[in-house]
Write a structure and sequence with these properties.
Elements lengths: L4 E7 L4 E8 L4 E5 L2 E5 L4 E3 L1 H12 L3 E6 L8 E2 L1 H8 L3 E4 L2 H12 L13 E3 L4 E4 L2 E7 L8 E7 L2 E8 L19 H11 L7 E4 L14 E3 H7 L9 H12 L8 H8 L25
Parallel strand pairs: 3-6, 6-8, 8-9, 13-14
Antiparallel strand pairs: 1-2, 2-3, 4-5, 4-7, 10-11, 11-12, 12-13, 14-15
Helix pairs in contact: 4-6
């Protein structure tokens, strides 16, 4: 079996990496974590980022058969519905998206959100498998950043070749994602990372984000299990769960909310669908307001 085709597309506005994962034998492909452009200052949405990925798929002769979300993103709106409209491919996510929906449905009073994940076409339990052409993909639940986080592991032969880790890990010089969102848990994140780092050392790891830390002058999103074990500044070999949890909690307490947190959650628990238009034909997102005291 030949190695899969993998190409990343970096959206600098949200620091998000979307991917085409393709099977050269059948020309079938998945698009992972597509982005919908959104200007929170004006409410304008656009499909430029998603079109870059779609155009590359068309130019490469790929037939998109799946759209995969690694989790309910809190920093960008998903472009999955647009990709689905253009390709007919189903949208899949980890089955614990139900938990995320139940957490955030009352926060935004989202009476149109099911709580059972039915907004998505496919829900993946831990250990689930599916194929993209002749590629075999395994789903590993990796909660901690959110309850619904999953890692998609692509096997070649009997060995893991690549894993798409979402926000579970970042590049070794940046570390790991926050764990302070509702439903997040730093200890659970540590254990999820250890599951990823138990994969063979040569397994390629593909990040969902990069933030170009001080000392690096370029964006990067591909590394390996061996590099993460040896050099990850938060969770390399020798760092205990207690040390990680203490670091993560202290760091998270100082982090501001992501710029697109409020619109992203409302849209992404709906599988990227925007709210229905109201009587004037306009769609609206909500901003919860809390008065001090």
């Amino acid at each position: 079996m030949s190695e899969p085709f993998i190409k990343g597309f970096f959206d600098e506005g949200t620091n998000t990496v979307s991917y085409i994962l393709g099977d050269p034998a059948t020309r079938q492909a998945a698009i992972i974590d597509p982005v919908l452009d959104f200007d929170h200052r004006t409410g304008d949405a656009a499909t430029k980022s998603a079109d870059v990925v779609l155009d590359a798929a068309i130019a490469g002769g790929w037939r998109v058969v799946k759209i995969l979300e690694t989790h309910v993103h809190a920093d960008h709106l998903s472009g999955a519905p647009y990709i689905k409209q253009k390709t007919g491919a189903p949208v899949g996510i980890g089955a614990h998206v139900r938990d995320v929906q139940r957490i955030f449905r009352p926060v935004f009073n989202l009476t149109d959100v099911s709580g059972d994940g039915s907004e998505f076409d496919e829900l993946y339990d831990d250990g689930a498998t599916f194929t993209i052409g002749e590629l075999r993909v395994r789903v590993m639940a990796t909660p901690g950043h959110t309850p619904a986080c999953v890692t998609y592991i692509v096997d070649v032969g009997n060995r893991p070749y690549a894993a798409f880790v979402g926000d579970t890990l970042f590049m070794p010089d940046f570390g790991t994602a926050r764990a302070d969102f509702p439903g997040g848990d730093a200890a659970e994140l540590y254990r999820s990372i250890r599951k990823v780092l138990a994969l063979p050392a040569e397994t390629k790891l593909f990040m969902c984000h990069d933030y170009k830390p001080p000392g690096r002058d370029h964006f990067a999103w591909e590394t390996t299990v061996a590099e993460e074990r040896a050099r990850n500044v938060h969770v390399r070999e020798g760092i205990s769960e207690d040390e990680f949890v203490a670091m993560r909690r202290a760091r998270d307490a100082k982090l501001a909310a992501p710029l697109l947190l409020l619109p992203s959650i409302q849209v992404n628990v709906r599988a990227g669908k925007l709210p229905a238009a109201e009587s004037n034909g306009v769609r609206y997102l909500k901003i919860p307001v809390r008065l001090a005291g």
